[in-house]
Amino acid sequence: MDFAGAYSADNLRFLMEGLKMTLYIAFWAILLSFVIGCIIGVIRYMQVPVVSQILAVIVEVLRNLPLLLIIFFVQFAIPQINVFGLQFKFTVPAGAIIALTLFEAAMISEVVRAGLKSIPKGQVEAARSSGLGSIQTLWHIVLPQGLRRMVPPLVSQFISLLKDTSLAVIVALAELMHNAQIIIGQSPNYSIPILLLVAMIYFVVNYTLSLISRRLETRTA
What we know:
Layout: H1 3-6, H2 9-46, H3 51-63, H4 67-77, H5 92-117, H6 121-129, H7 134-164, H8 176-186, H9 191-220
């Protein structure tokens, strides 16, 4: 175990470049999946005819597929599809963001739908009887309370998403695990020190998200 060699300035700089890519992918995937997941969750909660049923099928399909398969599909299968002469080819980072967004949006939509459904029906009925429309009831009564209840599961899902970025190593995304593997490949003596450091980095980032989640819970309680 060569700790001194493993933690050289060049290796640490290379790992930080991988961490930067990991956080970049996670940021955009979290942002996009949250927006899309909220839209899908609200539509399904409101039971919009036809649209809700179609979205339900899509969500169930995505939730029950391995994320690795979705990454492969976006990166290798979609570019082979030719629609009216149009082909969709993605860079590796863009493909990773799309795959993670699709998978996590399906998960988040269920969190949102469950959070909205957890609001007692009596409150909804009282709001409707007081003259509020369905959209107004959702916006002023259901959504504010539901979002507070969604904070813990949403943050948990975001933490899972950040860890799942490591799966994109299979398509050569230059993220943290990818760069760690390259360093380890240069010298097997670096294996334990590098993997310990990578584990510590993931722990610090994810634990920070957990602390943020707890503060949000406390402030919204």
